[in-house]
Every structure is written in structure tokens, then in C-alpha cells.
Amino acid sequence: MLKPLGFMAIQARERWSITEEVHLKPGHCWYAQASDVLEVRKITKRETIAGQPYHPGEYATRIGRYFDYDPADTSSLTLEEWQPELVFKECDKGEKLTISAGGHVKVGRQTREVYWGQKNNGDEKPAPLSGVTIVSVTDEWVRYGQGRNDRFRNPRVAGGFWVNSSELRGVNFTMEPLDPLPYKPRSSGRRAALVAAPLPKRYKLAAVLSDEHRGRCW
């Protein structure tokens, strides 16, 4: 039933972080969002994925974005996107970079786990690269040449997480964006093009949905 960019309520078996102490209540949930291109695997035999056991008939779904509770809102209804670590760091400058056609990354002799994110955020998988030198790394960009287009968005590792369908307590519900970003017109010759705005970072969850999701936990 999960749709691209659909929100998910996931039963929490442990605390997410120490700042969430105030939010630990019966039926504690985590919240996440699917990526714009769904990656869902039906499990046909017992196996372990990313340290989590799966059984036949369950589904493994890769997460696009995770959300943290706002510590200032003790009602546990305000959620903000959790920003995980960047894949590339400033110390990678000067290293050789290879990206295969499948998107696998090797920096020097080190292979890194990278999940290329959502197209509307501009961090989709770049074209294959073979042994190019990393010129610079910032929080936004990884540059591997002097050309204007010799760069790609510095991805984050959040999409490397998977959720077991047996932990889902709600999917495809709506949350109110607290920082909606409008579409901005851009001139393109004789026609105006629309530039896709980034996804909002903060949302308000309806109390009735929170109660519904918590009520499905045990």
C-alpha cells in the first residue's frame, strides 16, 4: 500500500535519542518517509538485512527520510527531519573517486555505502566515474573537476536504513508542513519553467493520527 513519498509510522522498540526522553509514552512511534522511487523487497526466506531479522511474507522497505520529535513540543506532534552524516568529508579531497553504473562508490581503497536520494532534492545518482580526483568537498557539493558540471550533491546516509513491514503502524497519511517552500518561476527562453522546491523539513502530526498509531503498538 505504501506510495512514493508516503509517510510511515513505525513502532519504536527502543529510544531514538536521549533528547526524546520526554516523548517516551505507551505506543512510542518513529516517523519516516519513503523515497520518491520505492525500493521494496518481498521476503521469501528467513534472512537478516542491516542487522534486522525478516521472515517469509514480510517486506523490507528502504527509508527516504527520518523524522525526530521536536524536544520543545511535549505533545509529540511536531516532527523535524533528522539529518544524518554526510557521505563525503573535507578530508576526502585529493582521493581517487570511482562510481560504478550501479551507483557503488569507492574513495581511494575504501568502499562506501551510499543511497542516492530523491530527485527533487537534487542528490540523485551521478553518471559513472572512473578514478577521478576529488577536488573539493562541502556540505552541499562534491567536485571532481574544473568544469561547471563536474560535481554532484553530497549525499547523506539516511536512505541506507530499512524498515520491516511488521513494524508499520500506518502509511500514506498526511501531515501539515510547517515550513512549506513555494515553487519559484524561472525564465527559460520564451517559456517559464517551474523549479521544484525542496521538501519541507518540519511537519505537524494530527493528534488523532498520533493516537491511532500509538493504539496499534504493543
List the helices and strands and how they pair.
Layout: E1 7-11, E2 29-34, E3 40-42, E4 47-49, E5 52-54, E6 59-69, E7 78-81, E8 96-99, E9 105-107, E10 110-112, E11 129-133, E12 136-137, E13 141-143, E14 151-153, E15 162-164, E16 168-171, E17 176-177, E18 184-188, E19 191-195, E20 202-204, H1 207-215
State which percent range the strand residues make up: 35-45%
What oligomeric state do these chains adopt? single chain
Principal-axis shape: globular
Q: Strand-and-helix sequence, N→C?
A: EEEEEEEEEEEEEEEEEEEEH
The total tally of domains equals: 2
Instruction: Give the low-pLDDT segments.
Output: 190-195
Which structural class do you get from the secondary structure elements? mainly beta
Radius of gyration: 19 Å
Mean pLDDT level: 83
Kindly state the number of beta strands: 20
Query: Helix count?
Result: 1
Distance between the termini: 22 Å
Name the helicity range: under 10%
Question: In this structure, how is the largest beta sheet organized?
Answer: 9 strands, antiparallel
